[in-house]
Amino acid sequence: MSHTQPSTVPGTAAPAGTPKKAALASFLGSAVEYYDFFIFGSAAALIFPHVFFPSADANAAIMSFATFGFAYVARPVGAVILGHFGDRIGRQKVLMFTLLLMGAATFVIGCLPDFKTIGWWAPILLVLARLCQGLSAAGEQAGASSMTLEHAPDNRRSFFTSWTLTGTQGGQVLAALVFIPVVALPDEIKYGIGWRIPFWLSAVVVLVAFFIRRTLHEPPAFAEAKKHNQISKLPVADLLKLHWRDVLRVVCCAFIAAVSTVFGTLAIKYAKDVAHVDSTITLWLVVVANIVALGTQPLFGTLADRIGRKPVFIYGALASAVMTPVFLLTLESGMVPLMFLVSVVYFAFGYAAANAVWPSFYGEMFSTRVRFSGLAIGTQLGFLMAGFAPAIVTAIGGTKPGGWIQISIFTAVICVIAAVSASTARESSKTPTAELGLK
Length: 439
Hints:
Elements: H1 18-46, H2 48-51, H3 60-88, H4 91-109, H5 115-118, H6 121-151, H7 157-183, H8 187-194, H9 196-213, H10 220-227, H11 235-242, H12 244-253, H13 258-273, H14 279-307, H15 309-333, H16 336-363, H17 371-395, H18 404-423
Helix pairs in contact: 1-3, 1-4, 1-6, 1-7, 1-9, 1-13, 3-4, 3-6, 3-17, 4-6, 4-9, 6-7, 6-17, 7-14, 7-16, 12-17, 12-18, 13-14, 13-15, 13-17, 13-18, 14-15, 14-16, 15-16, 15-18
């Protein structure tokens, strides 16, 4: 097997406007994927303990959050499979598949019978559908980030790839906005048909993203590699042989994603059970913080193009560690305006820095022939921490009075691990795309 790294052939630049189109397609695809994903997270915090685990008593919240985490178990498996095909047959084809799989799985969740109807088969079917969501998400961000990075000009890669994660925030905003009227419904409707509507609505958004994404062509670097038969036959084998250190580095850096689940899922439960904050208010906190992040993440991406990926990422990680206890204690204060201010600072001006930069930061560690696999496998192994963060912290008392201490310590540890791992990486902001990942 040849391990010669292909370079971008002169004259294969993308047509004018393609970087913007790739960024838009990534934004919309991520918005769809993570609308579906965050709808599940909101339901796991507020709905599923009543609908799928009514006989589990005090353990209902832990079991419900565990279903949220099951998707993260499927994601490494999906990363290997989808990474292989993404590096073999192309980014665009795999991205079309992930979009449709996520949409189908989410729609099916909205149709599932509850525990009272079919007993334990209800949570079993919920887990199976959640596993399909995880398989889909495993390839979405890696594929979208790879495609956008490879279409982008050398000096603006971080800005354009930041739109992949900005789409993620857009999906979370949409999910929260849809869920706000649901939690305001009377219990009989909310736990009956009400909670199902957001899952059914995902079908509409999937169709919109599908028609936009299908017109996007493969990046020039990948197209040239395929034309000259320089595609790896076994991308994962090449990845682990040539880039195993970078894969391990991405795994540890990707722990930072747990901040998002602490903020968007665990904090909702903490606010309701400990701080006695109305669920509508906490959902609005998520909405407002993510709306502001829609503007700050591209700015952080631009900053990373100027001063480098590492300082921006490390700042985001350490700021998240510092702001987590401040945010949780603010929830207990009862001062709603202060809650909104701190949530925006925490998420949109702290965590958003690392979130915006990681698609370029991680993607630039790998060459074209293994980039999809490297991004997918590295991030999905790291994202396991994010998936099980709510269940782990709930199990150790994080959603009980005084639990802000456990949540803060947990978040600080993962943020420091991510920052230290990032500090060991090569700075790649000034490296031409054709030379990325070359030893």
